[in-house]
Design goal:
Two copies of one chain form a homodimer. The first copy, chain A, is an alpha/beta fold. Chain A contains twelve helices and five strands. Chain A folds into two domains: 77 residues, Orthogonal Bundle (Arc Repressor Mutant, subunit A), CATH 1.10.10.10; 162 residues, Glucose-6-phosphate isomerase like protein, domain 1 (Rossmann fold, 3-Layer(aba) Sandwich). Chain A binds a DNA duplex (30 and 30 nucleotides) through helix 2 and helix 4.
Chain lengths: 289, 289
Amino acid sequence: MAIKSISSDNNSVMEVLLRNFERLTPTERKPARILLDNYPMEGLVTIAQFAKKAKVSGPTVLRLVAKLGFARYPEFQNKLRQELQARLETPVQKTPKQAKKSVRSHDFIAEFSDTVCQNIKKSFKNIPVSEINSVTQSLGNTQQAVYLIGGRYTFVMAEHFYLHLHAIRPNVSHIDRQSSTWADHLLDIKKNDLVIVFDIRRYQDDIVSFASKALKMGAKIILFTDQWLSPIASIAHHVFTLQTKAPSNWDSSTAIMTLIDLILAKLTKDLWLEVKDRLDAREENFQSF
Amino acid sequence: MAIKSISSDNNSVMEVLLRNFERLTPTERKPARILLDNYPMEGLVTIAQFAKKAKVSGPTVLRLVAKLGFARYPEFQNKLRQELQARLETPVQKTPKQAKKSVRSHDFIAEFSDTVCQNIKKSFKNIPVSEINSVTQSLGNTQQAVYLIGGRYTFVMAEHFYLHLHAIRPNVSHIDRQSSTWADHLLDIKKNDLVIVFDIRRYQDDIVSFASKALKMGAKIILFTDQWLSPIASIAHHVFTLQTKAPSNWDSSTAIMTLIDLILAKLTKDLWLEVKDRLDAREENFQSF
DNA sequence: GGTAGATTGTAATGAATATTACAATCTATG
DNA sequence: CATAGATTGTAATATTCATTACAATCTACC
């Protein structure tokens, strides 16, 4: 008669073990207890070591593993490793007593990443959920054209947003750096179109002026700026204030980037049905080149 | 001559690895990176599996392990298991992981920023300080020209880096999207020039090919990639592995961005005297327009 | 351009491992 | 107490593994 395995689903090994403990034979329970006692490390050693610790024979261990639904011992180990990995990833890794002998470079790196993370956390805490929802909803309406524009350094953010947004929906434009072309773009802007502006210090006059002209054309202005607020804030319909400080001579755009990614994520989720088709079609086009 | 082991004390394997990363040979660094990326699970598989994942030979893995102070592979694994066990015992066991009932907007925002921050922290923890120092030093040498190139989405990262790097030092070029111009750029590349490549999945053939051609021209390749490693990793002189996962259909480039900003910050600090003059002159030029 | 030293992979070897077949032992029931 | 069926261990086997020796390749320096 074939050995009937206890479970074939993908619960954790521990659950399966506990739930079916009474179906194990007395000797099989010994290694089972050892494993539970020291879960899951004990399962990551060789059969011989495991068997010795539990004071049973190798084949008994193997029969236990078989009853847990694994045809081979290495399979069982892979499952355990997999679980362990998942478990290690979730919590904030312990950053323990790392002696102070660590070099300055180490401190600098840690300080830098801490500051950036604080920026993100603090920025997000201050953003009203309603603003995000509202902007996301507007972006989901493909009737309204979207124009993205940024300053000397932030035009990169605009471009990043543009690339992804354009993958998601049509009717999106990135207004390039040369302000000589801006007049043309302004002509195209219709009422209720969305103009997304990135402006952090030092605020650029030309961007401010573009925004106010777009406003006159009836556009809705969405502003991404820093904690000192671009002058555009006073005319914008939606303002996102992001933290930009860093232990550096340069401001950090990381929080801005994160918000862009968040909005893209939400938008993609909300419009998944439409987006999926568009992405599929896009994929096909890529293939054919 | 006997192989001198790096350490025989009882620090964690990861510490030893990070502290002595620069003493490893190029090929030995590949499995080292894999291990750091997925610490310590990757060290618990067989040499063959480990070697395959890192795309090196078994003996190379063995030599790495030897340099870390272990005479035999199983010894190394025992140490890892031991560390892992200690780590699992201390904290409160479960991180129940918020049942996935309706994810409200608030939760979504928090989850998103948490993930991004974890990406940054995890990425930075795995980057050997020596790599950052070494790259920063190279970037400080204005004799070596710097070329930046990125893929479909990551060219934005290249551009961000370019903008700031160019403010700091001369002799920097951003290679644009149109691959038709790449042949010309290749002609200019001289021995010891730096080619900084951004390549995250899905990896682009044209970027890979550009990198290998640049290598033939004698350039030093610096790669920014994700946890799955671009194929360029095998020919790059320096590889930075960043975490890109996010609760989204899109990968997150935030960790990459943060590393760029960090390198820029460090570079600016290190070369402050030269940089200051350049920035002052630049400021004057802006005023006059 | 050539050569010594370092680096890396290939292939062979022996050791350790998982797995199987089967015998020994135990347990329950008539 | 006898015996069938379940349980467990022993020993043999085939597989996989770590390890080593050595050849090929690369790199730096003269």
